[in-house]
């Protein structure tokens, strides 16, 4: 188990104060989430040392900042991916990739160019210059360039937000791949629920320069007091394993702690991990298991609470499938007719499941 | 070596030495002027630009007084065992450095100001120290400005006359540069020899500036954008 | 609007022209070394005749080049006799109007009182500091300085230490600012220098050919009575007295040269 990333930071600007206390696992992707101006980017910049802050930062057991130590940016083994690729226009792709690699002491180099070029699909782009690349290609080069410093921490500030939809779809699989390959903590700022759902292991929810909540994605996503997603997108993420396949119907079963879901067979081998996303609007509830209907995924669930929705006609029901949370969005009338009370056992009917990773 | 070739050689030597010194001096100065928000920036920028507006005679006059054996600069150079500067090649270099300073600083300052902060931040997150960033990112990106500064400084030093006349003492092989030689020829009504040198300088100036514009035009069209 | 602007331009031009062609005023080109003396002379000229002489200063060579290219001067007060003679030959000046208005006196000078007592002894020592002279090729005082050093057979000794001023004014400046240890300058300059303390050695007139500063009436002013009046005035005793006071020698009045 790698050491945790710990940071207590205080950063003051005339119109803004950042006051955060982070304690994050030493590996996996932590998504920083919150409205514009809440301090996500500032937090990343303070961690990197691009903005000065008081407090302390410990990464991989090393102190980057405390009362006595204040490492300058170039002495913090981190990688930073900016919103715009920020490639050096006077260097080729190879020149850009090697920029940080050459400046990394030989004994610290754990990631090497061929490896990263393969991960990010850059083999055919080596000779090109930044102005000859598409937006998505540029950002892939920027990510590769950052990784080649063999960082102890990867900071990504909305790396996809400047890209068009096609480029985003082009690059997301590469990010998911990194997510599996890297054994370092990644802090990822995004506004996109899709990116969050596909990439996040942990979530830090911020508002007004402070941390409102931090924890695992599966734990935090169903919390309704957090402005994590817009109501349309409310849902949960479930980490599952591809457990069985029904070849006749081209369906596969994904097992998780608390149940199993059937979904169209994906192109990956049995036993591989899957991340599933279930939106609250795709979950309906029934007192009895009805098999005389089209919805195939029927799961026993326990009501945890019934909460109000931003629309007065709707209610959000928090459910538990053993340890796995699930959300259902119903009309208040339906909730009333079902007479929902916490602890009540019933059946959740899941209309649609998306594989996000 | 004929007097003409001696003057040409001396002029080229002066311009080369001046340009080399100015690039070393002006680069950090321009960097500071472009990046700092210190209250001294504006006054210093004004001082740097002064040779643009002051007549060369003003500069020459003060240099003559300052560098005289009893002047503060003269005292300093003497105590350092360097003797006094007027009427020497070294004195011309000092004067040219001051006189051409704005031609080196201003293009560099413009180039540095236009540089995106993000490039430097990116470099710093890639383990580049400040000095490293300067050489590996700032200078390559400021290349058009650097080229302009070099060419303008060189050409302007070659064209310098008033200051040289005032502190040079017109010594062949030491301080008698091209512009002074041309002036001498005109003064003594040797118009044919004056034409020979003056025409050469006109052609030189045109060629230098033309190649500068051509090269900068090409660099500009080559995607040197962040 | 267009008409308005052109009217303004016309009015300005007319004003300039009227400035230039004022009937009782002439423009005199004056060699730099004669600057101070000519100023006093011009004032005296106005007092005695009511006419005005406007003065333009420069080195003799430069002024000659300007005259050659049509500069609107009426009279040329040169620092030598060559340039006025040349002007006469080339039809730029009125033949027969040329005369010597002053003889320059060359001195070896330093602003430091203990620089030397006898200039000849000073010049015979091994050179340690630069010696300022005016450019012998362009300035009459520079030529005289060269002749002096040649007469003393010291030209080759001093040549490596010579610094040449563009004009005698610049040679003086080199000495006055202390950049040259001493210099050959005009007596008139030393007379005008506010600080009387210093070392000065009047160069014996046997060592150099006389510096005859000649005046000449320029062709464009051949029918200008004010210009003729100015030349007449220069030869008058009161004017010659002023000239002597500024450190020049004068011939007896009306003793025209050439």
From TrEMBL, chain B:
Family annotation (InterPro entries): MetI-like, MetI-like_sf, ModB_ABC
Presence of keyword Transport: yes
TM region positions: 6-32, 44-65, 85-105, 146-168, 194-215
Superkingdom, taxonomy of origin: Bacteria
Keyword Transmembrane among UniProt keywords: yes
Membrane disposition: Multi-pass membrane protein
SUPFAM superfamilies, per database record: MetI-like
Function: Part of the binding-protein-dependent transport system for molybdenum; probably responsible for the translocation of the substrate across the membrane.
Name of the featured protein: Molybdenum transport system permease
Lineage of source species: Bacteria, Pseudomonadati, Pseudomonadota, Gammaproteobacteria, Pseudomonadales
